[in-house]
Specification:
Keywords: Hydrolase, Lipopolysaccharide biosynthesis, Magnesium, Metal-binding. By secondary structure, the chain is an alpha/beta fold. Helices cover 38% and strands 14% of the residues. It has eight helices and eight strands; from the N terminus they run αβββαβαβαβαβαβαα.
Length: 180
């Protein structure tokens, strides 16, 4: 994984990663069954990256414009504490969370894919969009992931943060430990 020194320096400071859901944790498609049930697919490696990042003492939150029980269930599975759904104007919620956690803006990373994420993306320490993010967003973020939303973008950013903070190796050591 090759990243610029500038991105590594920004990632080294991160204490909170905030994510949009649709287009970041999912592939941006909304699927409805005949009975009106909504379905979303989440990438398991994205989820595992989130778990490892939290074990590395970096907090995670989501701020999403839509509200879905599926998202609640997935975030509960991943033990994400800061979950804000049904928030079309994300900036006030973001600023409140930053204040509650007593963080500076350069200690926050955000992954967003659409123009409604820009008010946050232009203010924070490390701004990221997936490969299939909106062109307006791509032109204004620090890093465009080579991975699409719902297809590994979140995992990559989690790894970038952990590698920059020297916590990735402890996870690798655990998984590569000798057989007992």
């Amino acid at each position: 994984m090759l990243i610029s020194e500038e991105i590594a320096q920004k990632a080294q400071k991160i204490k909170l990663l905030i994510l949009d859901v649709d287009g970041v944790l999912t592939n941006n498609m909304l699927i409805y069954s005949e009975d009106g049930q909504e379905h979303k697919a989440f990438h398991t490696r994205d989820g595992h990256g989130m778990v490892l990042l939290q074990k590395s003492q970096v907090d995670i939150g989501i701020i999403t414009g839509r509200k879905s029980q599926l998202v609640t269930n997935r975030m509960n599975d991943l033990k994400v504490r800061h979950v804000y759904q049904g928030v079309p104007d994300k900036l006030p919620t973001f600023l409140k969370l930053v204040d509650e956690l007593n963080l500076s803006l350069d200690e926050i990373a955000y992954i967003g894919d659409d123009i409604l994420d820009l008010p946050i993306l232009i203010r924070i320490g490390l701004s990221v969009t997936p490969a299939d993010g909106d062109d307006e967003v791509k032109s204004r973020v620090d890093y465009v992931s080579p991975f699409s939303g719902g297809k590994g973008c979140v995992r990559e950013v989690c790894e970038i943060i952990m590698r920059s903070q020297d916590s990735w190796q402890q996870h690798m050591d655990f998984f590569l430990r000798e057989k007992i």
